[in-house]
Amino acid sequence: MPQTGTWAVKVGLAQMLKGGVIMDVVTPEHARIAEEAGACAVMALERVPADIRRDGGVARMSDPSMIRGIIAAVTIPVMAKARIGHFVEADVLQALGIDYIDESEVLTPADEAHHIDKHGFMVPFVCGCRNLGEALRRISEGAAMIRTKGEAGTGDIVEAVRHMRTVQDEIRRIQTMSEDELYTCAKELGAPVELVKQVKREGRLPVVNFAAGGIATPSDAALMMRLGADGVFVGSGIFKSDNPAKFAKAIVEATTHYMDAEVIARVSTDLGAAMRGISVSSLPEKELLATRGW
Amino acid sequence: MLALQGDFREHREMLEEMGHATFEIRKPSQLEGLDALIIPGGESTTIARLILSNGFQAPLRAFCASGRPTWGTCAGAILLARHVDRLDRPGIETMNISVQRNAFGRQVDSFEADLEVDGVDGPPFRAVFIRAPLILSVSYPARAISTLADGTIVAARQGNLLATSFHPELTHDNRLHALFLTIGDTRGGGK
């Protein structure tokens, strides 16, 4: 008998997205531009993170009619965001036929202690992380894909780099440990020891790990790939740039050819201005999104 | 492995465990000297665009025509097919199969199932289908080599060409990869 909703099919879709670019879109028109440019999936949301940051207020799951419109507009997978801990928003997104749910710190958290128990869903989840412990906690809750948090809506790559380097550094450290050191390591990471053992065995996260939060140029995307990302999310970076269609296509090519500086140089030529952005170091502590989630 | 986008790493790891050298191909010139090629799973619209923007279409057609074993899994199978519904870019269009994309529904409908595959001995093959395409029809010289219980065609062979709508590279079962590697030995069999 065919079995649906298994761990293999949840993780498997993320494996199919690797080497690709997932783009934030707010309208069916945006979704078509993203698909035309070669996005491997789109993230349907009401406002890109840069606008959420500017507007303030409570950021929630998007309107179902807008999500349906985007699903109807493209043939590539469609993702959407639910608030951290808001399992009813996740239920609704699953009912709408979304292909992947992002339990996202970009929206205002609904629960300050608990993330969604993601094992109970048929649809797979992606969650953000700043370090290995956070990544493994999300995986133990059922996340089938991980992304760095970065600092969404800034166009500043510094936090995505910090988070990716932290995860990779912690993985390398675990590989140098002896088996009997893994228990204390798991305690310190706040992560299940079985997952820590798996990381030591395989030398990487148990699921696909994308980069997100601050990617604004083709070189940013290639930088994250060079640092070990399996693919990239681009949020505000596309539709806050001067020429979204061109930027989108250039970031797709740079992600494929991340080791080839000549290609990156060619696709970066005459792109127009990237999103203006905000330096993360100029942001007050309480405006940081990456610190949401536990 | 054609490494424009998708799960080429999983194919590489499986073949290297079996003792074969593998390479990631991102430029047409890198096709030279290869004995066989895998077009991996991924997003077919993305890979189709990258095939065109990187000048891969004619070289890939020539590679398939050269008789060297070529295998497309999922998105790769879509790109090998002569007829595809709802793909707005031409692929390689070399196998006499007609393919429907996302034929089983959205991600919540992705599934695992046990399959019998012509040429694979032993217990059923546990196949993983991710937003999978199905093969609507095959015509000579292509032939179906595996179907679901309801008769839906999910794998086909045409001489040196192999197409599967599922992902053997996501399992720990290398029997499909072993089958693929025998294609080179029987090249020109023209089945």
- What's the number of helices of chain A? 13
Q: What is the residue-averaged pLDDT of chain A?
A: 96
Low-confidence stretches of chain B: 187-191
CATH H-level superfamily title of chain B: Class I glutamine amidotransferase (GATase) domain
CATH third-tier fold name of chain B: Rossmann fold
Strands of chain A, count = 9
Strand proportion of chain B, as a percent range, falls in 25-35%
| Most extensive chain-chain interface | A-B, 39 and 39 residues
How much strand content do the residues of chain A show?
5-15%
The global form of chain A is globular
Question: Total number of helical segments of chain B?
Answer: 5
How do the helices and strands follow one another from N- to C-terminus of chain B? Answer: HEHHEHEEEEEEEEH
Gross morphology of chain B: globular
CATH architecture of chain B: 3-Layer(aba) Sandwich
Number of domains of chain B: 1
Could you estimate the helical fraction of the residues of chain A in percent? 40-55%
Give me the Rg of chain A, rounded. Answer: 18 Å
Structural class of chain B: alpha/beta
Oligomer state of the chains in this structure: heterodimer
Quick tags:
heterodimer; A: 294 residues; alpha/beta; 13 helices; 9 strands; globular; B: 191 residues; 5-stranded mixed β-sheet; 5 helices; 10 strands; disordered C terminus
